[in-house]
Amino acid sequence: MEKVLSLLFSKQDKQYRAFQAPLIPNIDKNLMIGVRTPELKKIAKEIGNTSLGKSFIETLSHSYFEENQLHAFIISNIKDYQSCLKEVKRFLPYIDNWATCDQLCPKVFSKHKEELINEIKEWLKSDHLYTKRFAIKMLMSFYLDDSF
Predict the structure, then answer these.
(1) Which of 83, 126, 140, 143 can bridge 148 by disulfide, Cβ–Cβ 3.0-4.6 Å?
(2) Can you tell me the distance from the alpha carbon of 11 to that of 99, in angstroms, rounded to the nearest whole number?
(3) DSSP alpha helices (H): ranges in 12-112?
(4) Are 32 and 41 in contact (CB under 8 A)?
């Protein structure tokens, strides 16, 4: 995945890295590149449906914070519910911070609330902090409207 890392480092902003590092204290600042969120989202759109993007999300675990962020953004853009759900389940155990957890928000989930609720119930039982946080985020994102 050297190509992805090269791309991420080409978007590095060291001042942003210095700003961001204290906000996520459980991540070693040496494992932060300093790529702004809009750039990561742009990269996710550019490579998400390519062979590079597909091979990137097949590879777990990642070393850098931004690799995990990019992974979350690529998953969030998957349009097929079953494929997206499969990738979310594969990725959840690797999430190790609040920022990556909160960035993972698959758009396709909004169209599958009846199926998704059963997954959420399972995630809520997890002992993994960020899996449980993700479940709560999904409840807040998709189940606080008038019909619920």
Answers:
(1) 143
(2) 19
(3) 14-20, 37-47, 51-58, 65-76, 81-91, 98-103
(4) no
- What is the spatial distance between Cα 9 and Cα 128, in angstroms, rounded to a whole number? 30
For residue 92, which phi and psi values (nearest 5 degrees)? Answer: -50, -45
Cα 102 from Cα 83, distance rounded (Å) = 20
Instruction: Determine the residue type at 85.
Output: L
Residues 6+ apart with CB under 8 A from 22: none
Q: What pLDDT, in 10s, does the model give residues 54-103?
A: 999 999 999 999 999 999 999 999 999 999 999 999 999 999 999 999 99
3-class DSSP state for residue 17?
helix
Encoded tokens for 35: 């790529």
